[in-house]
UniProtKB/TrEMBL annotation:
<keyword id="KW-0732">Signal</keyword>
<protein>
    <submittedName>
        <fullName>T9SS type A sorting domain-containing protein</fullName>
    </submittedName>
</protein>
<feature type="signal peptide">
    <location>
        <begin position="1"/>
        <end position="19"/>
    </location>
</feature>
<dbReference type="InterPro" id="IPR026444">
    <property type="entry name" value="Secre_tail"/>
</dbReference>
């Protein structure tokens, strides 16, 4: 009977797990998986205004390399051209300049000649490395939400800031985590700029080795960034990357993967389901709780028996599953926000945890 219930659970899971927030991160870098009809919709239905300075140009550099290598499915232009995605880069500045970015957005959207634009993106330069938590709210999250309310027919893209070498515990990552949590909890659209440059294409993690925006990292924990994951990966995979030319502040591979993730994002905006991005159930479990000191999921005394678990990251990718009885160690999981779905054979619960 228990086995039958588990089979039924898997079927129901496929029906009941649905997208709310859209989180685009390092797991979302395979635009070759996007069906052509969605790429067609992107090119002909999205009109994007993108405010950025040099770091934000990495998306455009990567997109140029993708179009040059993969052809018209990934065509885009700075103007209105049939069957090309329109990306206007004239908003001015970046999102680190408050209140200018808000004013520039309002002026742009109030101009009747821009009435076709239905997506607004802003990227950061280095400002998130020094903002206080309150400034993240006052200068970014609150005004962005107000713009969403003022222009309900426009999709606004949130972003994290680029890596600065300060690691997992640095101010930058703390502020990026505030943005990630806000987007997940309020069903926003997030392009996780920092997460994309925290991993190489094989999924190796470098934020905990103080990686920076140039893809440099500390190879042996001696305080010196003497390795570069992008150069190392390209040397090991000489036929597996695109030639991007110059990539602002970074290596070409980083720009390529920023462009890959950008196309994934655009396809999500026109309705492609992509990866499951969010699990919406209750987040207080009667069965278990997370102990952040020991990095363990612990079964409450009131529950007896074993639990089936599935561990999801922010982009909805399942990264672990199995069963446990008393405690489940999550020490192997990188720092960040996760969802654990628990199932007792009859019903399920979801716990949101932060490592």
């Amino acid at each position: 009977m228990k086995k039958l219930l588990l089979i039924q659970f898997y079927f129901l899971l496929s029906l009941n797990v649905f997208s709310q927030a859209i989180i685009v991160d390092h797991n979302c870098t395979k635009p070759e998986q996007i069906p052509q009809d969605y790429l067609h919709q992107v090119r002909n239905n999205l009109h994007i205004a993108y405010g950025h300075t040099s770091h934000g140009s990495q998306l455009i550099t990567g997109m140029n390399a993708i179009e040059s290598s993969w052809g018209d499915d990934f065509a885009f232009s700075s103007g209105l051209i049939n069957d090309k995605l329109e990306i206007n880069e004239s908003l001015g500045g970046d999102v680190g300049y408050y209140p200018q970015w808000v004013n520039n957005t309002t002026v742009f959207l109030e101009d009747e000649t821009n009435s076709r634009f239905n997506v607004i993106m802003w990227s950061w330069c280095g400002q998130l490395s020094s903002l206080s938590e309150q400034e993240v709210w006052d200068h970014y999250l609150t005004p962005m939400t107000q713009l969403e309310n003022d222009y309900p027919n426009v999709q606004f893209i949130y972003m994290t800031g680029h890596l600065d070498g300060s690691g997992v515990d640095g101010t930058l990552n703390v502020n990026n985590e505030i943005i990630r949590s806000y987007c997940v909890e309020n069903n926003k659209i997030l392009y996780d700029f920092a997460d994309i440059e925290s991993y190489d294409p094989d999924g190796n993690y470098f934020l905990d080795r103080r990686a920076d925006d140039e893809c440099r990292y500390d190879t042996n924990n001696d305080g010196s960034r003497n390795g570069n994951w992008a150069i190392e990966w390209c040397n090991a995979n000489p036929d597996s990357y695109l030639l991007t030319g110059s990539c602002a502040h970074s290596e070409g591979l980083n720009c390529e993967y920023k462009g890959r993730a950008a196309w994934w994002l655009y396809s999500r905006l026109v309705g492609w389901e992509g990866e499951i991005t969010f699990i919406k159930e209750k987040y207080v479990s009667d069965w278990a709780y997370f102990n952040s000191l020991t990095n363990e999921l612990l079964v409450r005394n009131s529950f007896s028996g074993s639990l089936f678990f599935e561990l999801f990251n922010l982009s909805g990718r399942k990264i672990d599953q199995g069963t446990f009885t008393n405690r489940l160690s999550l020490s192997h999981v990188h720092s960040g926000l996760y969802f654990v779905r628990l199932y007792d054979g009859i019903e399920s619960q979801v716990i949101k945890i932060r490592k």
